[in-house]
Structure formats: structure tokens, C-alpha cells
Amino acid sequence: MSVEILKEAGVLRGGTPGAEDLALIHALSRRALQADEVYTFCVRLCDNEIDRDYERFPGQTLEELAALFVGKSGGFDHQWSALSQVARIYRTELVREPGIQTGAGEPGCFLKGYAYMLRNEKNQSLIEEIEGGIKKEVSVGCAVEQAVCSVCGGDMDSCGHVKGQTYDGRLCWAELVGARDAYEWSFVAVPAQRRAGVLKGLRGGAGAQLEYEAALGRKYLAGLRSEVVRLGRLADPGLDRALLVKIAGRLEEPELAALKECYEGRVAQSLGGGPQLSYQTAGQETEAQDGAFLI
Asked: Does the pTM of the predicted model rise above 0.85?
């Protein structure tokens, strides 16, 4: 199973490529471009600090992402359309930040991407916005093998711990490990990673739909798990709440939905009534109605 990730960062000032950078760009272009045809700039794609979503890329994951981002295109707001493509990463490097230590206790580092775009009438306004500091924040879309809980070392989706909460004085966040793929990077308005974006120097080098949908999915699952726990306690007050939370945390949507339906039926029976929505006819016998709630 892979975890889909969107993380934001920011842009360094750009300019005209040197011979070394131009040679790398030619490896991606269909024809040999002249230096004055190309605008280059650097982006801080992502770093190893705990971000606003209480997730982080360990240094090892950043190293794995470095090779995967070479050749990936950049656009706007993670709109996966050819019309949105405006730039492309032609090389990357992992930059160490001496004297900086992350909230996870790891020496600071970030993934730096060198990007190029064509100098033409269509891109002129974007180049001006980059130079003027208007287009600054960027976001990456990638996939990792697993989100690991910082508290227990288990899978974040099933361990029962909640990102951003504190357990015995320990903050919980997700370690994003095992880079599998890099999809694209985009200019965005609000980054999850506070320092990601366009960097201010170039060496002589889905607010996204996908994230929105992923956030909705996480919110739906969290709500479903909470409802299963609530109904389970109502259906059988003797059940231990902590145990219910642990069980619900290990189930996926189909199992959660089935368990929720079962508990709803048992609660309705205990209250002396049937389910709120019922398609049973008046002619159905009681035995058949009771059988609808058996598992």
C-alpha cells in the first residue's frame, strides 16, 4: 500500500542557465535550447521538519525523492493537466542546514530542485511574478510506502494514535517513509511545509484537488470510526471503550460501515424500535425483521 502525499515548500530567485545547467536541460528538451531562451530558478521542494499536518519526510525519504523528481513538471494547484505545465525540474540536490535541528531531533535538510521554463510571451507574466515574489510557495505530489507513528512505530492508519496529540509528553506525528513515486510540483497559495517555496538564489542552477479529496477521505474515516465506537458503547455498555477504539482503528471503510449498520440495528432493538429507514412491508413477520440484524 502506498500513501499519497502533497507537501508544500517555496522558490529561490532565477536567471539564465550556465553551460552545465543548459546541458542538463538539453537532456529533457526536444531540441538544443539557447541560454537566452530559458529561465531557470530553484525551489525548496520539501524538508524534514514536522509540518502543519504533523507529518514529515525523514532525511532518507528526501534522498529517495531526489532522483524521482528529476524530469517532473510543475504547474498550478495540482491540476493534473498538460495545459497547467509551465516548468520542469532538471536536477535536484539534498541540502544540509548546519545548526538547524528539527522537532524530531534530526539535523535539518531540504530537497532543492532546479527548474527551467521557456522565456516567451506566454510565460513572461509568470517570470515577473516569480521575480517579484508573488509566485513563491510550491507544493509536491508524491507517494510513500507508509506513514509511521512517531509514538509507537506502527502504521499511522491503524495504531490508534492521532497526529498532533501528545501522549505522555510525546508529540505524535507521521514519519513518511519509503518514497515510491514523485508525480509533480505546483505553485500554491498556502503550503503545509512552512519554508517550502521559491528560493532566492540560483547557482550559475490537489490548495490542491488531490489533497482536498484525501483530506475528505481521512475526515470521513475518522468520523466513521468515532461513530462505530459510540454505537458500540450504546449497543453493549459493557464493552471497553479503549478496546473499541483500537478495533475501529484497524478496520477499513467496508468493515466499518458493516459494523456501524450492525450496531445501529442493535441499538434500535434495545430501544424497542426498528431502524429509522426501513423498506420492510407490513406483511413481513417479526422473525424475518429480527434476522436483518444478525451477523
From this structure: no
Return per-residue pLDDT of the chain as tens, 295 residues.
Answer: 455 444 444 444 457 888 888 999 999 998 999 999 999 999 889 999 998 889 999 999 999 999 999 999 988 876 666 677 889 999 999 999 999 999 999 999 999 999 999 999 998 999 898 888 888 888 888 888 999 999 999 998 889 899 999 999 999 999 999 998 888 888 877 655 565 555 533 333 333 345 445 555 666 778 788 888 888 888 888 888 888 888 888 888 888 888 888 888 887 777 654 433 433 333 444 343 333 333 2
**Residue 231: its H or E element:** helix 209-235
Q: Which residues of 184-195 are buried (b: 16+ CB within 10 A; e: fewer)?
A: bbbbbeebbbeb
Query: Which residues, 6 or more positions from 213, have their beta carbon under 8 angstroms from its beta carbon?
Result: 206
Q: Is 26 exposed, middle or buried (0-12, 13-18, 19+ CB in 10 A)?
A: middle
Residue 42 and residue 198: Cα distance in Å, rounded? 6
Q: For residues 180 and 144, is the Cβ–Cβ distance under 8 A?
A: yes
Q: What is the grid cell recorded at 235? A: 449497543
In the chain, the amino acid numbered 271 is L
CA dist., res. 188 & res. 26, Å (int): 28
**Host H or E run for residue 260:** helix 253-270
Instruction: Return d(Cα 36, Cα 48) in angstroms, integer.
Output: 35
Euclidean distance between CA atoms 103 and 86, whole angstroms: 34
DSSP 88-156: EEEEEEEEEEEEEE-TTSPEEEEEEEEEEEE-SHHHHHHHHHHHTTSS--EEEEEEEEEEEETTTSSBT
Q: Could you give the CA distance from residue 238 to residue 232 in angstroms, rounded to a whole number?
A: 10
Evaluate the CA torsion angle 119, 124, 126, 130 in order and state its sign: positive
